[in-house]
Amino acid sequence: MYSEIKLDDPNLGDLEKEYILKAIDSNYVSTAGPFVPEFEEKFARYLNVNSCVSVQSGTAAIHMALYELGIGAGDEVIVPAITFIATVNPIVYCGGTPVFVDVDANTWNIDPEKIEKAITPKTKAIIVVHLYGNPCDMDKIMKIAEEHGLYVIEDATESLGAIYKGRYTGTIGHMGCFSFNGNKVITTGGGGMIATNDKKRAGHIKYLVNQARDNLPGYHHSEIGFNYRMTNLEAALGLAQFERLDEFLTKKQLFKKIYENAFNGIEVIELQKEYADAISSSWLFSIKIDTKKVKKTIPEIQDKLKARGIPSRRIFKPIVDMPPYLKYKKGNYDNSYDIYERGLNLPSSTLNGPEDIEYTAKSLLEILEI
Fold this sequence. Notes:
Blueprint: H1 14-26, H2 35-47, E1 51-55, H3 58-68, E2 76-80, H4 89-93, E3 97-101, H5 112-118, E4 123-129, H6 138-148, E5 151-155, E6 163-164, E7 167-168, E8 175-179, E9 192-196, H7 199-208, H8 232-243, H9 245-263, E10 269-271, E11 278-279, E12 286-289, H10 291-294, H11 298-307, E13 313-314, H12 334-342, E14 343-345, H13 354-367
Parallel strand pairs: 2-3, 2-4, 4-5, 5-8
Antiparallel strand pairs: 1-9, 6-7, 6-11, 8-9, 10-12, 12-14, 13-14
Helix pairs in contact: 1-8, 2-8, 9-13
Keywords: Aminotransferase, Pyridoxal phosphate, Transferase
Protein name: Perosamine synthetase
Cofactor: pyridoxal 5'-phosphate
């Protein structure tokens, strides 16, 4: 008898309760309090960056990164066609234009060659997404950006702890954006973080997310700001989760090995591949299935998994097919469509045990009649 298998649920326990109670007992439950700066400082030390600024969500982090870098009307920002919608919406919030390019067929990440072909005189930035925790080809991307004078924002909302050539994702571009939503590697319930080595920009973002309130008597605001502050209560939860980050990452690597061993040599299953010298955080373990050979669609496979008590999730739908972004659909997105049509996210929550992952892999192979 197997436990209830979880797809991406958070892992909370006594330590989290302890920190939350500390915040409540202190009476600092809103945006004032000691846990917010402590969380920012510990996060910056972990990433080995100069500054981190906490915000209300990963979406807010991307929005503030774009805003701080001056993205506005007429500016183009290159993004992958496959990602969560929150990567793209902030471009429009700023008045910019998203330019969608296809992803690499093997890593599922934005294709550097497609980036270069999409650059125009209006291009101002590139948002790279380390999809499902898998690092992008940052060397090539940073080289392209440098040659064309472009900013690089890393959407590391799914890749906390992932490493590219000895550096954490979110620390290689001009700004890195993290999410602490309930299903991410660690959670604050709802929250995000911006990481950068530019102290001046970090200080300005910190000012902006606090409604651009000046340090003067009374309420004086010299700029239009945002109410994007993280609360002390959220930061308390974040600090507890942060103490367990190594535990979570280790467990996700174990799950990854179990899946890889189970699917090794299976012709109809293709894994999301990593670049050389890259280590995925394995936020969500993901595969592609040869649906033609197994004669089953992804929804049909999901239904059969569900009947066995196994949750799963489809890959993100290409954003160019969503109503607000149809007008930006230009060019070829063959790899994105193929990954969407044949891709599947498998249980990866650290609430699961190794036996749950083994059961999932075994069940999938049985469903595919392998």
